[in-house]
Amino acid sequence: MENKKVTIILILIFNIYFLNAQVVRDAGIVVSPIADAIISVSSGNNIEYLRDGNPETFWESGNALPDNYIRSREQNLFLNDENFEVTTNKYIMAFDGNPDSKAEVEKGITKIKLYNRRPIKFLSLKLNTNSEVRMQIIFSNGQVIERKYNKQDNYILQNFEITEESAMKEITFQCAENFQLFELAAIDKNITEWIKFEFTSPVEIGVIMSRHLNSDGVDSIQLLCSNNNVDWTKISNINQKAIAIVSMRVNPEIYAKYLKIIYFIKPILYKKASLRELAIYDQYGQFGIPDSATKTPNTWKESFGVNTIWSWGYKVSSKQIGRNEGSARFSKLTNLVRSYHRIDWDIAKPGDTPEFILRETSTDSIKNKWLNWKEEYGIWKTNGLQIDACVLFNNEYFPESGWNNAYYQARQYGEEFAGFFMDKELVSLVEVGNEPWDYSSSLYAEILKGMTTGIKNTSKKFKVIPCGLQAYDKYLDLNNYISNYILPNNDIDGLNTHIYSYIFNEKGERVAINPEDPRSETWSVNNLKKWATANNYLSDIYVTEFGFDSDGGGDDCIHSNCVSEYEQAIYGLRQALIFYRLGVKQFYWYYYANVDWNSILHNRSGLVSNYTSGFQEKLSFKVFEKVFDVLKDMKFSAIVLENEEVYCYSYINENTNEEVMIAWRPTSENHKDINWVDIPLKKNVKSIIDITNPETKISYKKEINKLKIALSGTPLIITLR
User: What angle do CA 421, 427, 433 make, to 5 degrees?
Assistant: First the structure.
């Protein structure tokens, strides 16, 4: 009996562990209504690939040419009696769309008059004859094409393209004997292929995402909707040349029971249409509706940070740079800094003793004699900065092949790292990797678990989070889907993500969009929170990279996702304020400075210009400096307004009870255009400043329980009394 009790207890323990160990892999994904739609197509196979979430799989139509079009009433003009007239109805079997049925054509001349007004683009013919058949095609401009057919052509479908631009007027056949005409078919327009989605009831469509790259044969693509399957309204044309997943906003939103994609294909042999993926969403897009906002536990100075690297770009120790440069300079706008802490600067391979430990006794065996973390981080700390050390590794400079016992090697490094940096009180947050997405996910999962265990076993004071991951798309090209990288029962202190407000537009170009747009990754915080809740992780979210590329400070910005210096400042602040409202624990601007190289993605996202240009402050630096001065001791309090017209959030200093609001219009262009808006407000206004130019005079009028104010896309700080 005792053994039986023990067995039952063990089974219960195992079951509890097993249940806890399960990952709800797709808990963060917002499911598109396409998932439940009835799909029909004009032709082709693999319909389910249209909605499997994988942009590498695809539906492909059949090829209308050379002969599939013959049976299609939409494509073969001879299947419509109104398009032509023949001398006798007994030849009808030659125009029935079936190349195996036939009509007996009497000797002499047979005329077929055509009434369509478009030029014929492609013609097909199948016959059987014992004597020569001469065919003439007569065009409205008087041009004539003549073809001759003999026994060697019997039973073979004859196809030819027609380049004559005028309409075809008449086709004549002349033969000395009777002959058999199996089929005559023609196309006078682009071939069409289509996909149709039917929903059980009308669905809201606010965002459409598709990957639809097609060959040169596809002339154009249209997207249409309907509520009765008869009357169709065009939503948009789709660029058939776009390579990436294109995200399109439908504003205002529409409701439709049917959705249809029509491909117009040039009449070229073997050309097909294809679609890799289609998803539709409501007005909130693939990131879903955000949670209600609550007062944040952290002040602004405990939330906003900046990304940097050893020496702050001066290529010498911070001890050797100017007293007001580097960490001292950036302490004017933040108390948090994220350091790209390359693991290969500490160890040559997994299992080695880190150089920051070896340096304590001797520098003789140290490879990187220039690097003294204790000194570097010590200066940063002296200047008031709390340090997030992002332990950086990838296959380029720290190959995964070196991790032959990953869990234990990572645990060893974690123990040594925590022991050293906690003893020196230099680091408060550790990230296990930045974007190690070229590592195998299973290897990274072992490294994460090992390093976290090592750090936590050494000191409970450290916060540990994983590399940058996302929970909204398991097939994203970046290979950063969260469920592939995090094993169950990890002792991590939150989730980490990198967010950039870039999309591919209708032309297939990577462009920046305003952070309020539902297509902006800004809102992907929602998906991570849902995933964390479903998998019993802390819902503390860290956005350790965000930013916008811009010119300014003497540096150009000429790649497709560049914005102006002014837009970088207002978009950057607006995005940061939204993160704060979403409850993000910490969010770090990327990057402290422009990269001293060409204008490419992320190289112009600095708050100052690059080293060569003298680290000149851009407008974004000044904006965040001003915001830090106002908000540093304040906490997000509430949403006042958050809609298509106005965003307005309130903040409070719990020690002094001072309150401010920050308001702006969520513009995507024409940011300086002014609209008068009403903001609910019972208190009086002490002052209002334009965050980009504090000298600007702001027009407003305080009325009973509201503030009438002239508002643009530039955030205004409204101090209350």
Answer: 95
